[in-house]
Every structure is written in structure tokens, then in C-alpha cells.
Amino acid sequence: MNEALEVWIDQDLCTGDGICVQYAPEVFELDIDGLAYVKSADDELLQAPRATTPVPLPLLQDVVDSAKECPGDCIHVRRVSDSVEVYGPDAE
What we know:
ET_Ferredoxin, 3-stranded antiparallel beta sheet, alpha+beta, Ferredoxin, 4-stranded antiparallel beta sheet, Alpha-Beta Plaits, 3Fe4S_ferredoxin
């Protein structure tokens, strides 16, 4: 499965645990509000609700692991082509 994937975080459910940041600091960051956000490819914090960022292929497993381990169940990974969630709370 080498399809393009993107990831976003539901801040309403984020517990601020920071597990995602430990797994993939290139993709996730805790902000001053204590919640996790995704970062753009050029390392900019994306604070808009439901902001998505591409999942870099080399980091796919780290992003998937953070979605699985997230205590808030708030990390969503979906295909770019059809927006179907492949990892996270809404995945089939």
C-alpha cells in the first residue's frame, strides 16, 4: 500500500499525553496549550481544526503506532485519494 496518506488530530479528544510526539516528532508536536498538533512538511505547526499533513512514507509505521497507542483515540490517518480512514478510531 503505497498510496498517499494524510494525518490529522482531533484536539477535542487529545489528552496531551505526547505519545505521538515520542513516536514521530517530525509529524506531531505539543503546543503551548498542551495539545498535540500535526506539522507541515516545512515544520510549521498546523493549528486549524482538522488540519491535515501528508504522512511521509518512511514515518508511516511511527504514525500508525502513534494512532494505535494514543490514549485519546484522536489521531486519524486517511487516504488522500478518497479520504477513507485507514488507521485511527474511524478506520474500518
